[in-house]
Amino acid sequence: MSEMSLRALRIVRSSRDVLHLNWLMTSPLSVSDSVPCLVHWMSTRFPNRDVWHSSINFRALRKGRELFYDTKQVSSPRNYCTGQVRLNCWNCKRPLDKTPTFFCMFCNVVQPPDEGASYFTIMDCDYTFTLDTQRLQKRYLQLQRSLHPDNFGQKSVKEREYSESQSAHVNKAYKTLLKPLSRGVYMLKLEGIHVEEGSDSGVDSELLMMLMEINEALDEAQTPEEASKIGQDTKGKLTALTEQIDAALHKGELQAAKALLTQMKYYANIEEKVKEKLSEFI
Question: Considering the entire predicted model, what is its pTM?
Answer without folding.
Answer: 0.67
